[in-house]
Every structure is written in structure tokens, then in C-alpha cells.
Design brief:
The structure is a single chain. By secondary structure, the chain is α/β, with parallel strands linked by helices. The strands form three sheets. A nine-stranded mixed sheet has the order 3-2-1-4-11-6-12-10-9, with helices on both faces. It has a two-stranded antiparallel sheet with strand order 5-13. Strands 7-8 form a two-stranded antiparallel sheet. It has nine helices and 13 strands. The chain has a single domain, classed as Alpha-Beta Complex (Spore Coat Polysaccharide Biosynthesis Protein SpsA, Chain A). The radius of gyration is 19 Å and the shape is globular. The mean pLDDT is 88.
């Protein structure tokens, strides 16, 4: 299989946690060489900047991009992943998008035509896939990305493949409540399929950016139609469009046991009041100082861990 998967990790002032995502990913993804990985990061001061620079030296096969304009950065990444020809066409499209934003009615008309014509505007050389991750992900069980892609190729009514869901995710952290497991269909390779349109909580949240794989050709038209200036807003506009996919793509896939989870021990953004831990030992600034002193998260401690939900607060083991 060629490199048909482009991964992106969104990160802000969390070099310590980003290191654990990358380290656990490369430890447990059995065919990680099939993925072109990018880190889109933002920093608030020189100390954080220098720590990301250190990680860039350590993970030389990862493309690090310092955020300038979040939407433009994301679109450049996603468009370039679909086709080299699309670079020039993307620039034309972006210029038009920005100009029409100055006029409310022109902008509405422009966006209405996007859905119909964007695939003609941006042709695809090959089937490509996108993997979204965030910097508080920790991979905890081994998996193969080729298995993910093979099942997405076979099941065209599937919207995406979640790496964070499984038969073990019976608790929804965001709602602080239990959640019913959907009626799963068992496939090959320990893969499950289910109807997300009749599920609840995390199982009815098919469009997200913390550990799912999607077809590039389905995500590009969605991203081109909306404005977003940070990862929370990006997930917000994606998640809000779920009704568009209920008829054509009512299925979502996952492994029997989730291979990653998010460890929400701190908050670095002020856009969305997400639930998170309150232990002051784990603030971004505290972890930054520990990182500066040579401490790292021992990701091997999480090998074989079975989380109860997509998000779960767990202790950090530092070495």
C-alpha cells in the first residue's frame, strides 16, 4: 500500500503531551510508515517554542508547522494531501472565498455552489484518507492503519473509522454518564460496524478531530464551506453537519477495543468550556517545566490499557 493516509495532530503549548502522542503512536501502529504525519502547533512564549523545536529534531519524519492562520494552514494541508494539482486551484478558491466574505449575500451564494462543484474544482489523483489527532491522545493498543483503510474501501456507506471507540467505551466523559453500546456488526480483523444515526453520546458523534480516519474527498467540501479559527471551532463545524451524512453514510467503524483515548488533564484553550481535570500538577505550564527538566511521559505504562471512554483522566507516569 502507498502512503495514502495523511495525519495531523493539533497542539498548543503541550510539548510533553505531544511527545507522548507521537511516541505511543509510533510504538503501537504496526505500519506507521504508511502515514505522512504533520503537527500543526501554536505557542504562547519562547520556552514552548524551543520545546517544539526540540521535538522537531527528535521526530524528523514528522512535518512540524507553526500555526499562522489556522484555517488556511488546515486547508493547505488537506488540499495538498489530495492532489499536487490542487495547490494552485486551492489558492484561487481561497482568494474567492475571502473576497465573498465581505459581502454577506455573495458569500451565501458562493457557499451554495461549493457543495455541487468543489469535486470538479479539486480532482483527486488517488483515494486519500485523513487521520485527525490532538495532543492529549495516548495510544494504548496496537493496530494497523492498513486494516482501517481496507475496511473503509470495502464499506462505502461508512463515514469514517474511529480509533477511540470500542466495546469498552461505555462511559461518556463529556456528559459524565454511561452510554449504551450500539448494535455492532462484527467484521474481519476485530473490526466492528454500527449505525451511528440511532446511537447516543460518543457513538452518535461521527465527525470529530481527536482520533478518526475519513476519506479526503468527503472532508474537503465540508471544510471549504465554513470559517473556523481553532481546533474546537473546526470540530464544531464538522460535527454540526452530521445530518448531511445520515442517508448516504449511516455507518461508522471501530476496533473491538479502542486503540487510543484522550487524557483531558488540562485545558489550554478558552474558546470552549470543555470538561477537564483540575490537578495543578498537570497544568500545561507545570508539564512544560518538567519537560524542560528532562522528564517525559512513560507511554509504555499504557500499553494494553483499556479505557472506559473516549476521554478518561489517568495518572501520568514520568521518567
Amino acid at each position: 500500500m502507498n502512503k495514502t493516509v495523511d495525519g495531523i495532530i493539533f497542539s498548543y503549548d503541550r510539548a510533553m503531551q505531544l511527545d507522548s502522542v507521537l511516541r505511543s503512536f509510533y510504538n503501537l501502529c504496526k505500519d506507521h510508515e504508511l502515514i505522512n504525519m504533520t503537527v500543526l502547533y501554536k505557542v504562547s512564549n519562547e520556552l514552548h517554542a524551543s520545546q517544539y523545536e526540540n521535538l522537531q529534531k527528535e521526530y524528523q519524519k514528522v512535518n512540524f508547522i507553526l500555526q499562522s492562520d489556522f484555517r488556511s494552514d488546515v486547508l493547505k494541508w488537506v488540499i495538498s494531501s489530495s492532489s499536487r494539482q490542487n495547490q494552485t486551484r486551492y489558492q484561487i478558491f481561497t482568494d474567492t472565498f475571502l473576497k465573498t466574505r465581505k459581502n454577506k449575500y455573495l458569500h451565501i451564494i458562493f457557499n451554495r455552489f461549493v457543495r455541487q462543484f468543489v469535486l470538479r474544482l479539486l480532482p483527486y489523483e488517488v483515494d486519500k484518507y485523513l487521520l485527525f489527532l490532538v495532543d492529549d491522545n495516548i495510544f494504548c493498543n496496537d493496530f494497523s492503519i492498513s486494516t482501517v483503510i481496507q475496511h473503509l474501501n470495502k464499506c462505502q456507506k461508512t463515514l469514517g473509522f474511529s480509533l477511540r471507540l470500542g466495546q469498552n467505551t461505555s462511559y461518556c466523559y463529556a456528559h459524565n454518564s454511561n452510554q449504551a453500546l450500539p448494535s455492532f456488526t462484527t467484521m474481519d480483523d476485530h473490526v466492528l460496524s454500527y449505525d451511528w444515526t440511532v446511537s447516543e453520546h460518543d457513538f452518535k458523534y461521527p465527525l470529530e478531530i481527536s482520533s478518526s480516519v475519513y476519506r479526503t474527498k468527503q472532508i474537503i467540501p465540508l471544510l471549504l464551506r465554513f470559517f473556523f479559527d481553532n481546533p474546537n471551532a473546526l470540530e464544531g463545524v464538522m460535527a454540526a453537519q452530521w445530518q448531511e451524512y445520515t442517508k448516504k453514510f449511516p455507518k461508522l467503524m471501530c476496533f473491538e477495543r479502542s486503540v487510543t483515548f484522550c487524557n483531558p488533564i488540562n485545558v489550554v484553550q478558552k474558546v470552549t468550556p470543555n470538561r477537564a481535570g483540575t490537578n495543578t500538577i498537570y497544568t500545561a505550564e507545570s508539564l512544560s517545566q518538567l519537560f524542560e527538566n528532562g522528564k517525559r511521559i512513560d507511554v509504555n505504562k499504557y500499553d494494553g490499557f483499556i479505557p472506559t471512554g473516549c476521554h478518561q483522566e489517568v495518572e501520568l507516569f514520568l521518567i
